[in-house]
Amino acid sequence: MTTTIDLHKQARDILKMNDRGGYTIPTKGLYPYQWNWDSAFAALGFAQFNIDRAWQELDTLFTAQWDDGMVPHIVFHKSDPGYYPGPDVWGGIGPLPSSGITQPPIAATMARLIFEKDKTAGEAHIRALFPKMRAWHQWFMQWRLDQGAVCVTHPWEAGRDNTPEWDGPMERIDPIGVGEYERRDTKHVDGSMRPTKFDYDRYIWLVQMGKRLNWDQQQLLEENPFRVADPTMTFTLLRAQRDLLALGVELGLDVNGLDVEIATLEKGAASLWNNNIQSYDARDTKTGEWANCVSNASFLCWYAGIDSAGQSEQLQRVLDKVQFGVPSHDPESPKFDGRRYWRGPTWAVMNLLIGLGLEEMKHPLALRLRQATRALIEQNGFAEYFDPQDGTPAGGQAFTWTAAVWLSWAG
Ligand code: 2M8
Predict the structure, then answer these.
(1) Interface ipTM
(2) Helix, coil or strand: residue 46
(3) CATH code for the domain in which residue 23 is found
(4) Structurally, how many domains does the chain consist of?
(5) In what residue span(s) does the Mannosylglycerate hydrolase MGH1-like glycoside hydrolase domain sit (predicted)?
């Protein structure tokens, strides 16, 4: 029988194995580069046994920050033909080869958690990172707001690539001229666990548009048909801004304007409440239409410091429907697909964020979620994601963020 001690060792070994020297890849083969939010989770994992390595992970991520403040979602430190689309397709305009979009801003929150573990080791890093994190958050505030909620401009930005929330806006895109391209993801894992060709044509078409516009945010604002106000981005940014404010106050840094930005985001979060389904939801800003989806991002409200009786009822319902919550999409929806990526599977990282929020609010379901995540990993290993009904591991294996969740929270 595998013991907790063995699993801790396995998790540490996964982080070390995926370490490429200063940054960590999500998993060998499928994702050979540094991903933004994966790295922030990796840092939290490293902090449980090597605090310097944790800070190095975040420091490296911010070396890829663009002049306008954006921190890209992939940093291509070293070219690898095993992943598509690579640096040439993206044509990122930052100091290092990178993609042209961002990902959920969880770095400030992870930085604060790591700082809390060892303030002496962390202070210099926080002082150096603070203005960079501030600039990134301000970039969101400048370019991405809709009624105070934060928008994504590509399905990959929310990190929940093929969630049913994007189905409506994706259907409105005609990927004309996308041309021939060769997918690499389905060479590493079974295609039934990945997004479809319909999705990929549109992912690549959006990348081509961004590159053609040289990632100019003003032009993208005018031309990009995909602009969805998203609970992932809104809740993670709101939380990150609160953490930045707390860190700034503690270290006597310039926090001017942060309180106003937080108030704006609180309004934005409230604007994502969809009364029809009694849940936080994504809103297509081009049509004003709701996605009408209860997703795992809907449950990030507590992480953002927002309690919600309605969302609690949804959580209870969803957890009662599957063995290993929180599923990425409502298990009672006809669009639910327990093995297909962000259309049903459970993701340990989302459980961690949701769970942290629930624990901070002393929510009665907090312990249940942590125990379910623990059992999921104990029984099924460190997969990228899992079928929420029976725990079947899916996607990539020996996955950095699942190992990090084990070390920092579930294990
Ligand atoms: C997945 O996304 C990438 C594109 O960014 C992909 O499928 O190629 C998502 O699960 C995303 O949230 C994650 O950061 C990334 C690496 O683990 O993989």
Answers:
(1) 0.99
(2) helix
(3) 1.50.10.10
(4) 1
(5) 31-402
